[in-house]
Automatic annotation (TrEMBL):
Species for this entry: Candidatus Buchananbacteria bacterium RIFCSPHIGHO2_01_FULL_46_12
TM region positions: none
Protein name per its UniProtKB record: Four helix bundle protein
InterPro entries given in the database record: 23S_rRNA-intervening_sequence, 23S_rRNA_IVS_sf
Superkingdom field: Bacteria
Signal peptide: none
Length: 97
């Protein structure tokens, strides 16, 4: 099945929703971390839908696959940063759910 726009991809839509949740979560992090882990977390989160979109706009399915792989790697990076943040008790516990 051909998908005309990356915006129609459910994975892209969910990744954008994740970015919004990440921004809300990191709003409560300690202010000294704004240029540290907050910046890293937000960049990792934004990288996921961005790479999906860029890959979809590329000319070949091989390129798309490559950018999906990058998006998956960004997800692993984000997950690691969230685990560290939670262990450091950054943010509100109920926003991690």
């Amino acid at each position: 099945m051909f998908v005309e726009s990356y915006k129609n991809l459910i994975v892209w839509q969910k990744a954008v929703d994740l970015v919004i949740k990440i921004y809300k979560l990191t709003d409560d992090f300690p202010k000294p971390e704004i240029y540290g882990i907050v910046s890293q977390i937000r960049r990792s989160a934004i990288s996921i839908p961005s790479n999906i979109a860029e890959g979809r706009r590329r000319a070949t399915s091989k390129d798309f696959h490559h950018f999906l792989t990058i998006a998956i790697a960004s997800g692993a990076e984000l997950e690691t940063q969230i685990i560290i943040s939670k262990k450091l008790n950054f943010g509100k516990e109920n926003k991690y759910l």
